[in-house]
Protein 1
Amino acid sequence: MKVKVTVKDLIGRSRVLAGRAGLDREVKSPQVSVAELSSPSSWRSIASSMLHIPPRQSSYLCSLPKKERKRLVAALVRHKPACIVLTGGAVCRELLEGPTSARIPVLKTGNLPRLSRQLTQSLAPRISLHGVLVEVFGLGTLILGESAIGKSEAALDLVLRGHRLVADDMVMIEKADGVIIGSAAELGAELLQIRGLGVVNVRALYGDSATAETSRIGLVVELEEWKKGHNYSLVGLRERRYKLLNVNLPYLKLPVRPGRNMATLIEVAARNQMLKDKGIFTARELDRRIKKRLTG
């Protein structure tokens, strides 16, 4: 899902020194570019990005003759950065007047790292999925499956066992620093929908420790109706993956059948995945022992 982020969305506590008319300009790059004013060849990738002019570069610009300052700023503006960010140093008139004419905002901030983090988070790829996200033993476990298969009921059972609900029905997914993070839609946080019971507020019922705002997803579990005659694995030697935002996550299918406690199975699946993350693969070890006996 493409996310549109404007300069106005990112201002925060930054001061707008000039170019206020351009606050609706779109920022397309997730990285803050740095301008090396003495090297125009390094400006090729600054279009639609937040352009940082460090104090030493700003002072360098102010040290140039007026005619050279105007020429340099005009050349910089022609590359169409989304905005210019200053963090200190001298500020010459040309650095304010040129961008103003081109409707390019000039901002001043005392916290560039915060601005950079906000930019990265705002432009992170995002999607939404129909499912439930529960943090089981600290492992974000995404539960998928057809409507009415029992996802929310399993989540409620997990909450009663001391685990934490992150999202029900609609899970917002985003990628940050190569990992997948899940959270609830704004109106769905803390809420759980149970057929026949209605909507319940998990935090109000069970306290703050029963919910989490976000969780890194480390396991995907899909619930499906038990299919008669289907060959379900009893060993689990095959490692399956579920791709979310081009990241492959551990994945398994659990057949739903009367008498099976899905919360218990999900809990065991989470524990087993935590072992795998430590390099302990029970199925592989069993396979190794069997092969050793057969060949020994």
Protein 2
Amino acid sequence: MKKKHSAKLILALAITGICSLSCVFVATIARADTSSSPTGLTKDELTTQIQTKAKQLESINQQLQSTQQNLQGTKQQRITLQQQLANIDGNISQLNLNIQADQINTQKLGLEIDSLHYDIQDIESSITDKRQAIEKTFVELQKTDSTNGNLLMVFLKNDSLAAGVFEAQSLNTLQSQLSADIGSLRNLHDQYDKQIKTASDKKESISSAQQDLSNKKAIVQDQKATRQTLLAQTKSQESLFQQQLAALQKQQQQIANDIESLDAVLRTKIDPSELPPFGAGILGIPVQGASEASITQGYGATSFAKNGYQGHWHNGVDFGVPIGTPVLAADDGTVVATGNQDLYCRKGAYGKFIVISHGNNLTTLYGHLSRQIVTKGDTVKRGQVIGYSGMTGYATGPHLHFTVYASQTFYMGPSKVCGQMPFGGDLSPLGYLF
């Protein structure tokens, strides 16, 4: 009789949802990681060190802002050899500050992961306590409920109405307590999963920061090599630098005209019916930390294009960001081309570039990079780091040039003076970004 009665009670609890986690909390306990902080520091000590790292990062960010403002201020000045050298030195200083920031941020993330160990241990302890409380309540329910859960039998078996009411209330209280305990266990389970995910995300951030650190160190070496090349080519003479600059500007005009003469024709070949309609977020922002406010030159017949390009047309948008800023894939896709046009026409075209074909009939170009970390044929995900901003090719300062093509018009083809060049019918990136 008692076995039958207990089964009925548990079935009733399951129907009301009170017992729905009776199997879940066992699995939760089994998964728990009971390791302590790897550093051996207390949680208060970890908190203090995390705050110290945060202050160090804030100080470096202030220095970075100051360096960036100084670099921006030189853009309006007449281009001279000394200015070019100063800009390279500024880029190197900025990169070194970013390297310091990456190092400190990695240390800070490591401390935060250690601190999470304590939070996870606290949750595990609470889960164990709550599990014991639930088991105890089950036992009490089995002791109290000896009458098949039939309220009439509860009253009949007692000597008085008061005693029957008291036993019925006791049974209801135990059931309510069980419901509350299992609800609390559910919340603890959710907290545990969130903390585990947070720790996992921070570990991924450390991996990303370490990758950035390595690449930025390589970019610093590239900038130092560029400085040495500039000095060697000009023999430290301003007059020779100006002669080379005049020849370069003539070449830049010719290349810009070649690009626009073909792209203008390809724009007429675009079939709008094969393209996604304009909409914010169709493509992701292609530069880490950038926004619409970061755009230093828009799309189309901009004032700079009217004066700076013979074709009077800018086939993308420019994001003005410091050298070494991570560049992100605007959407899932396949890398269909990479290159370095500085090998054919130094400072004349896109410099180091990447082209990605997406599944929505859009193809995106990322130009003037300091470094590429993907190659042709790679599959990339939206938001994945594919390279780092720079000022290779025709660039007056560090930025990312971002072009969106209609895929049906895009192709890689030979140019007159600058090797293989990306061509295509370009679209306004702003219509797909914001």
Protein 3
Amino acid sequence: MSNISEELIDLQERFAYQEDTIAQLNAVVTQQHADIMQLQQQMRVLAKKFEDLVYSQGAEPLGETNERPPHY
């Protein structure tokens, strides 16, 4: 019977370790999601500022007909 007890203890230890690992990974994924959302918001703000700057300079914004060539 001690063999079964040892196996049960081993399984419980593995389960506890896996739970801890999953919690740590979840924390990382949650932080990355928050970072991505913040970066997307910053990109929207920068794109708007760039668009406003281009408009204020009197230049036409880059579009389908006024795109830079791929070698730039």
